[in-house]
Amino acid sequence: LFLGHEVSQSFYATHSGCLPHGPFAMWLVKASRPRVIAELGSYDGYSYFTFCQAVREAGLTVRGFAVGAWGGDELTEFCQKDAFKIFEEHNPRYSKFSSLFLKNSTDALEHIEDGSVDLLHVDGGHYYTGLKKDFKLWGRKLS
């Protein structure tokens, strides 16, 4: 039980630094009941697949979008070489509502309707300028 909602352990095992955030991510989806979830910077998939698992457990009707360069930009040049392949292998579990965009956050903007995103998780760059840019560009996508 987390903040009054049942939350389960994320099925997706990884060495992500986001592991402690899993219960909060599950709670956030179950409590806010978003219709559209977008994640910018979906490197190893832990956060995104935790959101997806919560969607499935809560029986929500959602569109999910994972956006990442997976080694195709300066932020991820040192990424595990097969990170996208691993991510792609786990996505079929949620294929009814989940889409992957192998793009940077700016190039993915055209695929998401303005005013539609209820839950935006920004985990691309961890530097102020990158976060500011993503927030400014994606602000119009928020519901």
Task: Tell me about this structure.
Helix 3 links the parallel strand 2 and strand 3. This protein is α/β, with parallel strands linked by helices and 143 residues long. Helix 1 (22-32) packs across helix 2 (46-58). 33% of the residues lie in helices and 14% in strands.
Question: What is the structural class?
Answer: alpha/beta
In N-to-C order, the SSE pattern is HEHEHEHEH
Radius of gyration: 14 Å
Question: What's the count of strands?
Answer: 4
Largest sheet: 4 strands, parallel
Proportion of beta-strand residues: 5-15%
Share of helical residues: 25-40%
Mean pLDDT: 82
C-alpha termini separation:
28 Å
Low-pLDDT ranges: none
Helix segment count?
5
Shape: globular
Strand order of the largest sheet: 3-2-1-4
What's the structural blueprint in terms of helices and strands?
Layout: H1 22-32, E1 36-40, H2 46-58, E2 63-68, H3 83-90, E3 98-102, H4 105-108, E4 119-122, H5 128-138
Structure in a nutshell:
With 143 residues, this protein is of the alpha/beta class. It is built from five helices and four strands, in the order αβαβαβαβα. Strands 3-2-1-4 form a four-stranded parallel sheet, with helices on both faces.
Annotation keywords:
alpha/beta, 4-stranded parallel sheet
